[in-house]
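User: I'm new to structure prediction. If I give you an amino acid sequence, what do you actually give back? Let's try with this one:
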Amino acid sequence: MSVLSVASCGFEDRTDLEVTAPKTDLRVGETVQLSVIQKLPDGSTRDLTSPTAGTVYYTTGEAMLIPEPDGRVTCIGTNNRDRESSVIGVVNGEHHGHIRFQLQSAGPGPSLEVSAEKTVLHEGDRIQLHVFRSQPDGSRKELTDTSSGTRYLTFAGNALVDSSVVTISDTGLVSAASSIGSYNYRTVIVFVRNGDSVGWIELKIVHASVE
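Assistant: Good question. You get back a string of structure tokens that encode the predicted 3D arrangement of the chain. For your 211 residues, that looks like this:
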């Protein structure tokens, strides 16, 4: 299913996937696990939460609410407001559903520190990300390399995980696309997870000719 077709569905009245979460009020930095159930005509149900079942998750506000492929959802912002709302949509073949979250700016915030030497990249640029987790003794442990269990997801304005604008290597090296086409710029949210810890950083990709 294309990005456009995924992003355009999921908000009709006739949804046949039941999407639930332990709570739908999220503060910045909080994560919940979704459950996706299909009710079959004979009264039985199928659990379609796992991506191995063909389920795809998307977001109406990737600067606020991030879905991971396994159905975990994390609030990362509220557009500089005290409260906001955003929707996670779910697609599995011809089936779809959605769930709305109320988001609050107050919260634990990111538990991983994600940094880069710059956050505005030109086409073709490369930069190194660094990921740290604070330790009980006040020190920081670097978790940039994926061998430490760190995973990177990139969202570039198309509602879904999208690596067409930047790619991230196993060592946290970010490579911007050689061309962003007719766009004036592209904004990319990089979401990072290591175990139960999460963090994020926003990158902006501009044309090579922009000073």
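You can read the tokens as a compact description of the fold. Here is one thing that stands out. The radius of gyration is 18 Å.
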